[in-house]
Amino acid sequence: MLPGRNPENAVICVTTGLLDKLEYYELEGVIAHELSHIKNYDIRLSCIVSVMVGFIVMLADMFSRALFWGGLDGDRDSDSKGNGILMIIGLIFLILSPIFGSLMQLALSRKREFLADSTAIEFTRNPDGLISALQKLEADDNQLATANSATANMYIVNPFKKNTKEGKKKSSNLWSTHPSVEDRIEALRNLK
Hints:
By secondary structure, the protein is mostly helical. The protein has helices at about 15-20, 25-40, 40-70, 80-125, 125-140, 180-190, and strands spanning about 165, 165-170.
C-alpha cells in the first residue's frame, strides 16, 4: 500500500502472491483495509507524529549542546552545579527521546491497524472475509525476501515470521508495527 497524504494522491498495490493465495472475499477485505488507511488519513497522521518526534529530539539535542558548550548563563567557566545537573538531564532526554518517539509511533501504528480493520468491515459488511485473509496470511510459512523494518508497516500483517520451539508466538509487542493477528481477529469477531 502506498497511501498518499490524501485520497487524491493514494495508490494501493497488490502483490501477485496475495492474488494467488486469497479468494475473492478475502481479497476484498484486504483491499478494504488498505482503503481504510486512506480514508482515515493515516499517512498524514504518521507524518505529523514523525515531525513532532523529530522536533522533540532536536530540542533535546539543542538543550544538551547549549548546556555542554556554554551553560545557561553564557559563562563557560562557571562552576555551577546546576548547569551540570541540567546537562545530565539534557543528555538523558537526548538518549531517551528517540526511543520514546519510536515507541509512540509504533503504538499509534498498531492502533490505526485496528481502526483500519473496523473501517474495512464498514465498507464490506463482511468481517469473515478479512478474518479469513488474516488467518491465511498468518499461517503462510513463506518468508518475504524483500521485507525490511522500514517497509513493515506497508503490509497487512507483520511480514516477519517468528518461530519458537513451541510454534508461532504472538507477534504483538512494543517494537511491532502491527498488533497480533489473534488480537485483530478477536476485535473483528467482537464487531459482529
